[in-house]
Amino acid sequence: QVQLVESGGALVQAGGSLRLSCVASESIFSINAMGWYRQAPGKQRELVATMTSRGSTNYADSVQGRFTISRDNAKNTVFLLMNKLKPEDTAVYYCNAHRIGVIQDYDYWGQGTQVTVSS
After folding, report:
1. Quick one: CA dihedral 38, 113, 85, 20, positive or negative?
2. How far is CA 4 from its chain centroid?
3. Sorting pLDDT into bands at 50, 70 and 90, what band is 85?
4. How many CA within 13 A on the CB side of residue 103?
5. Fewer CB near the last or first residue (10 Å), C or N of the chain?
6. How far apart are CA 78 and CA 119, in angstroms?
7. Do residues 51 and 33 make contact, with C-beta atoms less than 8 angstroms apart?
């Protein structure tokens, strides 16, 4: 069981920046992929960015070029740097750890951190 704790959410004006952090309870080096997802009111949870243990990244089209995912294996921490924020980025942001198992895969989630972008 991987426990994830996010932080860094805040109220920010459009055009501003935020950095979210996600600390895992165990070494993220052994986790196949870490990622960030978000859920806006009345909408489904959607992928924002992911990074595999080998460093490959994937971004949603809506954040490509503005957001950057990174990881610090020594600190068991994953970051999401968000630049040029827009009101439509407003959502609860969740950290995810994806582990590939022998029989099934496992997904672990944090409690979420609120990001609000004012226009």
Report:
1. negative
2. 11
3. very high
4. 0
5. N
6. 28
7. yes
